[in-house]
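Residues pack. One example:


***
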Amino acid sequence: MKALYDVPAPAKLNLFLHVMGRRADGMHLLQSAFMLIDWCDTLHFELRAGAGLSREDLGLPLPADDLVLRAARALQAASATGHGVHIAIEKRLPAQAGMGGGSSDAAACLLALNRLWGLNYPSSRLAQIGLTLGADVPFFLGEGNAWVEGIGERLMPITLPAARFAVVKPAEGLATAGIFNDPLLKRGSEAAIISGFAANPYSFGVNDLQPVAQRLCPGVSQALEWLGSQGLQGRMTGSGSAVFAQMLQDMPLQAAPAGWQVRECKNLEAHPLVGWAPSDDSSVGG
């Protein structure tokens, strides 16, 4: 195998997000439900002679040392492979949106290079590497939608009904660290019960990060008001600044303000790269 083209990296939405507390190391303990949607980045991988790693931006420019290159380096180091790769990225997912775009790209990179380099690592081993890159990466290495606990590493598969969503990213972005470090962030939500969530998954709970985000970023409130003006009940995903709402009727969305990104999305039943890594640890080679 010399190349893998058109590898999708889907975004996620947090259907709710409760902050349960904080560990001694400062990491926050969360409860959430992650749902995959059909808004994706696309990555292309070409095997390189030698161990060199390079990246080409085909869409929105990325930082010089982004999560994709860090993922490639981490897998290269863990496997001691002598292979390299050139990675081209068509970036469509907005940054600082709470949609997991960078983590999804990193997961797609781990899955693709696991194949391209012939490592045959199981998904559990890739998840261990992914967690060192970011708390959301293991989710994007899984099979589909998930109930999430801990710092993001405890995942339980869930089934969600098919639905459509309006997803809105205002011009401003939000840095995750700024939200979680805010002294006014609520950090003591009670544990949710999955049976209560399953009864009505698209209107369950709240996003505990949203009040802080609305204070720090006026665009979050403006995007929620824009959804509300169309009869849609919105909430923020992740640490923002993107917001979303379930669309119950086939209705066109109004024109959005300049600089906003708006998309009608469908949820995904399964990750498009399901099966790209074996699940049996005995299959590991090298």
